[in-house]
C-alpha cells in the first residue's frame, strides 16, 4: 500500500520541472528566430537607404537581389540582432536590475521608428562636414537611449556593440569586401559607431519586450494551473 501511494508522486514532481525546462528552451529559440527575422528586415531596408545614397558600395558581381544588397549582409545582421536581443534581458537578470522603463510595445515601435530615422538622416541629410554629421548622430543616438532605455547595462552594451561592430566593419573594408564613399575614420565613416549604438539599443528593447511578454504568458499559465 505504501509503495502504491508513493509511486504517483514522482511524475508530479518531475513532470512540471521537465515541462518548464522544455518550455523555456523552446521560448528562447522562438525569441531568437523572431529577432533574427526582424534584424534581416531592418538590414534590407536600412542597407537599401545607404546604397541609394551611394554611402555604401558593393562590388557589381554581388549585387544580385532586388534589394541591391550583398547576400551575406541580412543573415549577418539577423544573427547579430538575435544575439543582442537575447543578451539584453539576460544581462538584466544577471545584474539583478530588471528593466521596467517604458515596457510596452508602442514604446518599442517608436524606438524602431527613431532608429530608422537616424539611419535615414545619415544617408539623406546633407551636412556641412562629417564632424557635424557625426556629432548630430551621436546626440540623436544618446537621445534614443535616454528616451527608451536609460539603463546602465543598456548603455554599456550599446557602447560595446558599437565598438565591436565598427571593428568588424573596418576589417571587412580593409579586406575589400565592400567600401564606404569618403571614409574619414580609417576605412569607414565616423558616424558608423552611432548607428551601431542606436541599433544595439533598439534590438535590446525588442528583446526585452519579447522576454517580458514570454514571462507574462508563463505567469498566466501557472496561475491557471
From TrEMBL:
Cellular component per GO, a single term:
SREBP-SCAP-Insig complex
Which terms are listed as keywords in the entry?
Answer: Cholesterol metabolism, Endoplasmic reticulum, Lipid metabolism, Lipid-binding, Membrane, Steroid metabolism, Sterol metabolism, Transmembrane, Transmembrane helix
> What InterPro entries does this protein's entry cite?
INSIG_fam
Superkingdom in the source lineage? Eukaryota
Q: Which GO terms describe its molecular function?
A: oxysterol binding; protein sequestering activity
One family from Pfam that matches here is INSIG
A single BP term in Gene Ontology: triglyceride metabolic process
Intracellular or extracellular location(s): Endoplasmic reticulum membrane
Where do transmembrane segments lie in this chain? 28-49, 69-88, 131-148, 155-174, 186-206
The record describes its membrane topology as: Multi-pass membrane protein
PANTHER family associated with the record? INSULIN-INDUCED GENE 1, INSULIN-INDUCED GENE 2 PROTEIN
Which purpose does this protein serve, as stated in its record? Answer: Mediates feedback control of cholesterol synthesis.
Give the similarity note.
Answer: Belongs to the INSIG family.
Q: Protein name, please?
A: Insulin-induced gene protein
